[in-house]
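Render this sequence as a predicted structure.
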Amino acid sequence: MDREDRKRGNFGKSFMCRLQCMFSQSSSCESSRLTLEDTQQWSQSLEKLLDSKYGLATFRTFLKSEYSDENIEFWLTCEDYKKIRSSFRMSSRAKRIYEQFIKAESPKEINIDHQTREQIKRNVKTPTMHCFDDAQKIVYGLMERDSYPRFLRSDVYRTLLENLSADSSKG
């Protein structure tokens, strides 16, 4: 085993420990454990990855490790935003989303075109549940074309598959 393999193995073990701690807290039920089959399904589409609570958690952890988690954070924030029914809460949340993700030079500024940014700026004045839809579609596309393929090629995902594969062949 060369140095890179040991390094990757240590990273994988450390990452697996963190994932297992995270996932074991969510439920003690055997059926909710992360399986090799579930993990393999993540490679079918970004949608399948995001639909899995473990997939989403792993993807977020990967993006945070690369300091590129603003897109997934925005996408998730938009998903939560769409569930708001109170117009007062919608208005205050829309302004917060704009300040955090849309506004130029904002803390977690997402990569969208000027036209979409300006449209959202207008929409936030009288927000609806769909005022971030265009930006959310752009961000999803960016993740699908860039972050998701990088995740599938990452040591994080490959090590997780290897460890789950080894575990399933033992038991």
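Summary. The radius of gyration is 19 Å. DSSP finds nine helices and no strands in the chain.
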